[in-house]
Specification:
Layout: H1 4-12, E1 19-21, H2 23-27, E2 30-31, E3 34-39, E4 42-45, H3 57-61, H4 69-75, H5 79-86, E5 90-94, H6 107-122, H7 130-154, H8 158-183, H9 191-204, H10 210-222, H11 245-251, H12 262-269, H13 274-289, H14 293-339, H15 355-362, E6 365-366, H16 370-376, H17 382-387, H18 396-410, E7 416-417, H19 419-443
Parallel strand pairs: 1-5, 6-7
Antiparallel strand pairs: 2-3, 3-4, 4-5
Helix pairs in contact: 6-18, 7-8, 8-9, 8-14, 9-14, 11-19, 12-19, 13-14
């Protein structure tokens, strides 16, 4: 890195944490093998720590060279505990002449959001109602039992099998929302209990991997709808998203798919294939390549239980066909719920915006109702969830008016729509992006 003697002097002070830095100096350290970040004006050298970061290498690396104060608060429900690990990484602080925010982040919005977070904490909105999650787990287990008893009592006819698959898909979808709660550390005060129950729900009840989910999903929350940082908008060239990427692909004459028809073939390769094909392959590859044997054991415990229950009724091939159909149904549920909040929103390259602005541009809400809450696992409150990912979801409806008030005061767009409008906007946004690609491909 540049800096000559000045850089040597800075690095000599790393062990004592006595360095004084400008934002320009911090931003130089944003590359693989050389990464700094700032939390509460303290500068940390995370270069060697990233590989040991429990949330994964990528999520913390996405904040290299910039202020991570709000992201740190959002992801860590036990900040005092985490700061014990930060202390050895401290190399100094920002110079007194430097602002609290890097680049062009809005200082007014940053301060407004931090005041909102303090208010939310005072109101006790991060406190969990244990009965809510106990009842939610209970209804998942009840659905599992009903599916099995249906086949045991009434046999394996087509109608019974179809009803069994629908019940199992409902159970799987709801278990997906519950593992999401534990994965975000939003149920127990102590992170270790959240981690344990997360492995049980996502592993034993769903057959997936907790670490795979953590490393993928936290990136999405850290930098939502940002290319190269949010894996949820990495479409492997099958779709083009937003307004920037389609034009870039068109100008470069990139045509892996007929993107002007993506709103049509989305129905063929999107909802039907995400969970049963793409996610399943990625999960298994991740567990084996990373040698994550603990998650693999949890995952195999699900399949052992499933095949023990259903192979006597359907045989091995029939049991595989049944679970494949269940995944097919669940995948539709999952894709529509998770994409209606994001695909219609702004999707672009990194702009280094403040936490409130970044999250509100990338998310929108769906109207509240008892059905919408249950159907989406309260992800109809996507804005509140993204601003406060460790908040128990039963409190989203209480914090939503506070968030809306801040947005109205500072002119930040707060979007809310009906469930049907959310579904429709997924398709219309894909159509719009496809049209932008075609125009750029033919005329630019």
């Amino acid at each position: 890195m540049g800096g000559g003697g000045k850089q040597t002097q800075q690095e000599s002070s790393c062990g004592r944490g006595g360095g004084v830095f400008t934002w320009e100096e911090v931003q130089r350290h944003s590359h693989k093998g050389d990464q700094w970040l700032v939390i509460d004006r303290k500068v940390y050298n995370i270069t060697d720590w990233v590989k040991r970061h429990p949330g994964g290498v990528r999520v913390i690396s996405h904040y290299a060279g910039e202020d991570a104060t709000d992201a740190f608060a959002a992801f860590h429900p036990e900040p005092d505990f985490v700061r014990k690990f930060l202390k050895p990484l401290l190399i100094g602080e920002l110079a007194t002449s430097e602002p609290n925010q890097d680049r062009d982040k809005n200082s007014v919005l940053t301060q407004a959001f931090r005041e909102l977070r303090e208010e939310v904490e005072r109101e006790g909105l991060f406190r969990t109602q244990p009965l809510f999650f106990c009842l939610h787990l209970g209804h998942i287990l009840l659905l599992e039992a009903l599916a099995y008893l249906l086949i045991w009592v009434y046999g394996t006819g087509w109608l019974q099998t179809l009803l069994c698959a629908v019940i199992m898909a409902t159970s799987q979808a709801q278990a997906g929302w519950l593992q999401h709660d534990f994965g975000h550390l939003s149920v127990f005060k102590k992170s270790r209990w959240n981690h344990l129950l997360h492995k049980f729900v996502i592993g034993h009840l769903k057959g997936a991997s907790a670490n795979w989910w953590n490393h993928r999903h936290f990136q999405h929350h850290a930098k939502p709808n940002i290319f190269s940082k949010d894996p949820d908008v990495n479409m492997l060239h099958t779709f083009v998203l937003g307004k920037t990427q389609p034009v870039e692909y068109g100008i470069k004459k990139i045509k892996y798919m007929p993107y002007n028809h993506q709103h049509q073939y989305f129905f063929l390769i999107g909802p039907p294939m995400l969970i049963p094909v793409y996610f399943h392959i990625q999960i298994m590859q991740t567990m084996f390549f990373r040698r994550d044997w603990v998650d693999l054991v949890w995952s195999m415990s699900y399949y052992l239980r499933y095949f023990t229950c259903y192979t006597p009724f359907y045989g091995a091939f029939g049991a595989v066909a049944l679970i494949s159909f269940v995944r097919f149904l669940e995948s539709h549920w999952f894709v529509w719920v998770t994409q209606m909040n994001h695909i219609p929103m702004e999707i672009d390259h990194e702009k280094h915006e403040d936490w409130l602005t970044m999250q509100l541009k990338a998310t929108c809400n769906i109207e509240q109702s008892l059905f919408n809450d249950w159907f989406s696992g309260h992800l109809n409150f996507q804005i509140e969830h993204h601003l406060f990912p460790t908040m128990p979801r039963h409190n989203y409806c209480r914090v939503a008016p506070l968030v809306r008030k801040v947005c109205e005061k500072h002119g930040v767009t707060y979007q809310e729509k009906s469930l049907w409008s959310g579904f429709r906007d997924v398709v219309s946004s894909l159509r719009e992006s496809g049209d932008l690609w075609l125009d750029a491909y033919l005329h630019k």
